Each structure stands twice: as structure tokens, then as C-alpha cells.
């Protein structure tokens, strides 16, 4: 069977899991249910193979290895998922939070990379495991950005206060481009033999980030004029597919950030074309169409995340670092957000749960795994850990991703409810049904 056949069966399984979950308990987020189910299934396959009951674990491993996770996500469905998420971003609220989103996307991502890299390197030195600093920074670069796919799939459904929700969603949509630039730079130093220079880093940033934003504006304007030129409702919706398909591929071919291009084009179409270019019928169906695509692709992505455990080979020494990666990332995320927040709160009043939600709501997902899977195997073997550096980074990434989706994603609702209650108390409303968002 070819790759397409495997993806069809995995997609069907993901949809059936969503259906069963909704029937059993519609309060459980489908991303959490799919990830948990596929993880449990993967562990069962591994256990059955270890006990020589079945050989399905080997077959499943070969299937997952044949699916190029990096190409499938970073060069494939990422465009659809980011564009769908950006369509729901309200520009007036985004403008109100522009400084917060910019600072968190730039400073916090860079600071978290350094904090994680140096702290992880210090811990490995303490245990006597000599993991080079560059590999620790590489892990910090790929795990620091919030994953917009995971964030939008969970936070969006909880209906958080608008300003707080926009801070989390806006940061997650923009900081993946920054994170990819940092990861690409560190990757080139670690495996390409290149020496980092300020000029080289600046040039890479300008080409990827600024180029992606400008390309997204041009792409959004092109789609806007095409949509405005027709009154056919079906054709108007179909024209939006140009952006995450040919537009996303063209951005990658031009070596600019396709992720940022999708976000910019989505915001433009969602806030301008929605009201001036679409017919009334298309305005009604636009969100439904893209919510359906978003739900389907998320279902497929998260079942692949759960199955990715089959690709990891760890030693018992490596398990120590893998377990420590979770608190390390949480601590460094908190510090990277806390530092700028101390300055910003002097000039603007924030929800009292903002810092908690920004820390606990920083979910990681498929983007981090795709970057980890792009690391070449067999380049550096860590003697004390008896592990290849790729397996170590992939194991730590998988642990953080799994914890963020299953634990943070499942418990963030309580913080969101507390944040909403704080808005209600501040505005003086008695009934929750009468409360308006901040």
C-alpha cells in the first residue's frame, strides 16, 4: 500500500475517534481524545511486540517512518491550519494587543531558547553527560514557540476573554515563524558547519519573516480581488483554497516564511474580504467550510503525534532527561513571559490570570515534532546516555508535546473559567449569561 492509502485509513480512524468521543462525553476536547487514544494504541503495539504476541508494532513503525512528518506538516497541511486559524482573528482586538504579541513572539521565544539551552546543558554536565551546548540550544529553539495548531485547537473552543485569548492565539500564530528562523540558524551551526554571524542571522530573519509578511499581503490582496470579482458563492469559497495551496507552496519556493504568509493573508481575508468581497451566502458558509477542514486535518495530525512514539529509541539514562524536559520547559516559559510582563503591566491593566494562562496555555504539538524529526540521525552519539542526539531530542520533544496536550490542554479550562469570572466581577455583572467579554 502507498502513503495515500495509509493516510486515508489513519484519517478515518481519527474521525471515528472524534465521533465516539463526542457521543461518550462532548466535554472532552477532540485533540486530547485523539492523542490519548493513539498513544495508548502505540504503547499496546509496542508491548505486544515485546511479548512476541503480534508483529503489528513493526508494521506500524514502518508506516510512520514512510510518512515524512516534516514534509507532511511543515511543507503541507501547515498552510491550511494556519490560514483557517487566522480567518477567525479579529483585527481590532489584534491591534489592541499588538505590543504584547510582538514582545512575546520576539523576546519570549528568543529568551526561552537561551534559558532552556543553558539550563539543560548545566543539568547534563551535573550528571556527567557531555551533551554539547549547541544541541541543547537546538532543543530550546524547537520547543520554545507555542504551536498555533495545538493552541487554536484547544484554547479557541474554551471561549476565553477576548483580550487574553488574543494574546495566546496571536502569539502562537506569529512566533512559529520566529522560532523557525532561530531553529534554522542553530541547526546550520550544529550540522552545517557554519559559524553564526550577526549579519547572516539578520539576513535570514529579514528574508524569512519580513519576506513572509510582505508575500502574505500580496497573496491576500490577490485573493481579495479574485473573490470580489465574482458573485458565485461556491466559487468564492473555492478561491480561498488558492492561499494555503499554491500560495503556501510558492512561499516555500521563494524561501520566505509560508507560515507568516498564511497568517497575514488569513487576517486580511477574514477582516476585509469577509465583509466587502463575499456575498451574504458565502459569509455564512466561510467559517463552516474552514472549520470543517481545520477539524479534519487536526484529527489526522494528532493521531500521527500519538503514533510518533514508535519512532523513539531511548535508554534508561535518557529517560531521566526526557522526564526533566517537562519542568525545564515550563520554568523557562514562565521566566520568558514573566520578565516582559513586569514591564507591560505598569502601562496597562491585565486579567489577573494572564500570566498563568500564558504559561500553562503554551501548548506544543506537531510543529515541534516535525522540527525534531528533521534532525539527522547518527551525527552525534552521547556515550553516557547511550543514545543518539536525535533520539534524545525527539524523546524530550515528544514528552513535552504529550504533557502539554494531555495535561495542560485538559486542565487549562479551569484557568479560563477563573479568568472569565474575573472579567465578570470587574464589570459588575451578576449572571454569567449577561457577561460581556473584556
From TrEMBL:
Presence of the UniProt keyword Nuclease in the record: no
Cation/H+ exchanger transmembrane domain segment(s): 21-415
Membrane topology: Multi-pass membrane protein
Family to which this protein belongs: Belongs to the monovalent cation:proton antiporter 1 (CPA1) transporter (TC 2.A.36) family.
BP GO annotations: regulation of intracellular pH; sodium ion import across plasma membrane
Gene3D superfamilies: 6.10.140.1330
Keyword Cell membrane: yes
Entry's transmembrane regions: 7-24, 30-51, 72-89, 101-121, 133-154, 174-192, 204-227, 247-272, 293-313, 319-341, 353-373, 393-412
Descriptive protein name: Na+/H+ antiporter
Keywords: Antiport, Cell membrane, Ion transport, Membrane, Sodium, Sodium transport, Transmembrane, Transmembrane helix, Transport
Location in or out of the cell: Cell membrane
This protein's GO CC annotations: plasma membrane
Species this protein is from: Haemophilus pittmaniae
InterPro entries with a match to the protein in the record: Cation/H_exchanger_CPA1, Cation/H_exchanger_TM
Pfam families named among the record's database cross-references: Na_H_Exchanger
Molecular function per GO: potassium:proton antiporter activity; sodium:proton antiporter activity
Amino acid at each position: 500500500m502507498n502513503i495515500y492509502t495509509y493516510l486515508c485509513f489513519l484519517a478515518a480512524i481519527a474521525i471515528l475517534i472524534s465521533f465516539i468521543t463526542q457521543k461518550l462525553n462532548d466535554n472532552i476536547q477532540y485533540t486530547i481524545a485523539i492523542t490519548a487514544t493513539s498513544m495508548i494504541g502505540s504503547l499496546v503495539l509496542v508491548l505486544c511486540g515485546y511479548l512476541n504476541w503480534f508483529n503489528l508494532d513493526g508494521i506500524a513503525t514502518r508506516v510512520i517512518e514512510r510518512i515524512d512528518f516534516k514534509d507532511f506538516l511543515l511543507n503541507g497541511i501547515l498552510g491550511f491550519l494556519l490560514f483557517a486559524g487566522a480567518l477567525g482573528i479579529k483585527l481590532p482586538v489584534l491591534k489592541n494587543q499588538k505590543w504584547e504579541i510582538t514582545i512575546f513572539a520576539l523576546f519570549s521565544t528568543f529568551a526561552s531558547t537561551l534559558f532552556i539551552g543553558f539550563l539543560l546543558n548545566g543539568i547534563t554536565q551535573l550528571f556527567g553527560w557531555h551533551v554539547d551546548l549547541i544541541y541543547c540550544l537546538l532543543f530550546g529553539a524547537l520547543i520554545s514557540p507555542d504551536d498555533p495548531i495545538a493552541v487554536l485547537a484547544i484554547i479557541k473552543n474554551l471561549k476565553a476573554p477576548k483580550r487574553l485569548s488574543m494574546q495566546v492565539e496571536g502569539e502562537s500564530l506569529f512566533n512559529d515563524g520566529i522560532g523557525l528562523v532561530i531553529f534554522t540558524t542553530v541547526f546550520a551551526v550544529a550540522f552545517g558547519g557554519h559559524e553564526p554571524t550577526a549579519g547572516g542571522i539578520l539576513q535570514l530573519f529579514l528574508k524569512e519573516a519580513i519576506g513572509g509578511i510582505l508575500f502574505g499581503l500580496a497573496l491576500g490582496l490577490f485573493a481579495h480581488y479574485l473573490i470580489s470579482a465574482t458573485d458565485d458563492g461556491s466559487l468564492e469559497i473555492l478561491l480561498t483554497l488558492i492561499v494555503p495551496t499554491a500560495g503556501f507552496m510558492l512561499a516555500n519556493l521563494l524561501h520566505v516564511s509560508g507560515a507568516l504568509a498564511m497568517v497575514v493573508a488569513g487576517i486580511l481575508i477574514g477582516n476585509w474580504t469577509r465583509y466587502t468581497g463575499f456575498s451574504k451566502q458565502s459569509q455564512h458558509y466561510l467559517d463552516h467550510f474552514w472549520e470543517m477542514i481545520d477539524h479534519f486535518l487536526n484529527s489526522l495530525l494528532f493521531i500521527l503525534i500519538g503514533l510518533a512514539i514508535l519512532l523513539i529509541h531511548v535508554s534508561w539514562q535518557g529517560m531521566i532527561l526526557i522526564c526533566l524536559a517537562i519542568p525545564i520547559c515550563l520554568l523557562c516559559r514562565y521566566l520568558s513571559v514573566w520578565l516582559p510582563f513586569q514591564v507591560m503591566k505598569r502601562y496597562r491593566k491585565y486579567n489577573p490570570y494572564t500570566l498563568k494562562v500564558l504559561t500553562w496555555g503554551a501548548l506544543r504539538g506537531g510543529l515541534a515534532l516535525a522540527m525534531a524529526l528533521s534532525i539527522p540521525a547518527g551525527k552525534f552519539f552521547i556515550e553516557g546516555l547511550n543514545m543518539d542526539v536525535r533520539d534524545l531530542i525527539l524523546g524530550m520533544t515528544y514528552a513535552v508535546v504529550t504533557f502539554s496536550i494531555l495535561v495542560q490542554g485538559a486542565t487549562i479550562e479551569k484557568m479560563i473559567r477563573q479568568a472569565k469570572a474575573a472579567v465578570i466581577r470587574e464589570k459588575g455583572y451578576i449572571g454569567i449569561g449577561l457577561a460581556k467579554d473584556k
